[in-house]
Specification:
The chain is α/β, with parallel strands linked by helices and about 270 residues long. It folds into 2 domains: about 180 residues, P-loop containing nucleotide triphosphate hydrolases (Rossmann fold, 3-Layer(aba) Sandwich); about 55 residues. It contains 11 helices and 8 strands. The strands form 2 sheets. The chain has a 5-stranded parallel β-sheet with strand order 2-3-1-4-5. A 3-stranded mixed β-sheet has the order 6-7-8. Helix 1 packs across helix 9 and helix 5 packs antiparallel against helix 10.
Length: about 270
């Protein structure tokens, strides 16, 4: 069993390929709206979540803690949604949301601009010029979003296991190629992969608990899990807050040990 993430530009064919793969492999197909709905169950607005994901960061938004809150909620929701494998997620850099430790087949779909323009005109009724402007803005916003949140270039092929160009390859051919990789068990969801995914889920749940607790809501900590051991790294406003961090971390089901050696009070960091 596998988890596949599909990254694509607007009207690049990624959604169509995801749906094709889901039928061919008998996988679940999950999009951004499903994840947003699950994340919003924590008591936040779905519309605000979508805005935080769609819009590039401005100087003002860089100073708002809400963007970090929304990102953490989305990470936890996606990890929980795909934890059992046999799932395809398309939308909003899923491979980056899950982090490098997750057992995921990372696919990028690209397509010629003219093909994308034609689809935008057909689906949205745009003129050619409007379609070009729409696609360019959407791509720019996604590049800025991933650069801001992860410090990486969304277009960098190193971020993906497979990049498929639909210029001379049909959707069916692309679907068959990806399915072949999965069936060759290169990304089989064996016991080791399941354990790694559970660690991703546990770390995401701890991070979510920290941002939702009033005592730790202002913190942006790195959370890592190995088995049931959770390691926390980052700055604390004061050592007094350490006890709160430990309390919240221990409250998450599945935590068997807490390592806070990587936490330091901001006052002692040069």
């Amino acid at each position: 069993m596998s988890v596949i993430t599909i990254s694509r530009g607007t009207f690049s064919g990624g959604k169509t390929i995801a749906e094709c793969l889901a039928k061919r492999l008998d996988f679940r197909c999950v999009d951004r709206d499903v994840i947003v709905e699950r994340a919003a169950a924590q008591g936040v607005s779905q519309e605000e979540l979508l805005d935080a994901l769609r819009k590039p960061p401005t100087l003002l938004e860089r100073l708002r803690q809400k963007r970090y809150l929304y990102l953490v909620l989305m990470q936890a929701a996606l990890a929980e949604e795909v934890r059992e494998g046999r799932t395809i997620y398309h939308g909003n850099a899923g491979h980056l949301l899950l982090g490098g430790g997750a057992p995921v087949l990372r696919v990028r779909i690209i397509a010629p601009l003219e093909s994308r323009i034609r689809k935008a005109c057909e689906h949205l009724g745009f003129s050619r010029q409007d379609a070009v402007e729409y696609i360019e803005k959407a791509d720019q916003d996604r590049r800025r979003w991933t650069q801001y949140l992860y410090g990486v270039d969304w277009n960098d092929p190193v971020l993906y296991d497979l990049v498929v160009n639909l210029e001379h390859v049909t959707v069916e051919q692309a679907c068959a190629t990806i399915a072949t990789l999965v069936r060759q068990r290169c990304w089989d969801f064996d016991g080791e992969c399941r354990a790694r995914m559970e660690e991703v889920v546990l770390a995401a749940r701890v991070r979510r608990a920290l941002v939702l607790d009033p005592a730790t809501v202002n913190l942006e900590l790195d959370v890592q899990a190995s088995g049931g051991t959770v390691r926390l790294l980052g700055r604390l406003p004061s050592l007094e807050q350490l006890a709160e961090v430990e309390r919240v971390t221990w409250s998450v089901a599945g935590v068997t040990a807490v390592d806070t050696a990587g936490l330091s009070p901001a006052a002692v960091i040069s």
